[in-house]
Amino acid sequence: MYIGVKPRSDYNPYEKSSSTSVNILPFIYEYRHEEYKGIQVRPILDLRFGGGASQISAFGLTGAYNIYFSDAIKRNYFIKPNAAAALTYSYNRLDEFNGLSLSLEPSISILANPNFLITAGLNPSLSYFIGKNGKAAAGNSSGFKADWGFFLHLGYNMFSVMY
Fold first, then answer.
1. Greater pLDDT, 3 or 50
2. Is the pLDDT score of 65 beyond 90?
3. What is the 3-state secondary structure (H, E, C) of the chain?
């Protein structure tokens, strides 16, 4: 079992006011079903700041499948590459739309000790927005939007050594 923290903040141009959203529930739970493969669950609970009163703006869930390339760099080295494919569903209650995103997450993990790691990577994604303001959120008539971002997360592997 792997438990981590993956803070996220973003600015979205489709929002009605100039504001920033922060995921206030940035936890990762991963079940390692094989030695170097795992299934992650990440809750989403966004708090929007700016443009008026701060309030919960969106909620949802991400599921991801991770592969750790432990032997890609010499054994017992503290840096290891990994990759994930993730599917996210969220509902933005303030802007009234649902979003479905598919993303890839190539990354590098830095082993701080045998159980604790820091992971940094990219997050290119393709999202589909539906609902009352879905097309406005996408910025086009199709409802699709390509996007990308950076991420950093900290994690602890509770029952086994990472590499």
1. 3
2. yes
3. CEEEECCCEECCCCCCCCCEEEECCCEEEEEEEECCEEEEEEEEEEEEECCCCCEEEEEEEEEEEEEECCCCCCCCCCEEEEEEEEEEEEEECCCCEEEEEEEECCEEEEECCCCEEEEEEECCEEEEEECCCHHHHHCCCCCEEEECCEEEEEEEECCCCCC
Return d(Cα 111, Cα 98) in angstroms, integer: 37
Length of the chain: 163
Q: Residue 159 pLDDT > 70, yes or no?
A: no
Nearest C-alpha neighbor of 100 from the set 65, 56, 58: 58
Residue 145 burial class via C-beta count within 10 angstroms: exposed 0-12, middle 13-18, buried 19 and up:
middle
Alpha-carbon span 20 to 70, nearest angstrom: 36
Sort 116 into a burial class: Cβ within 10 Å, 0-12 / 13-18 / 19+. Answer: middle
pTM confidence score: 0.87
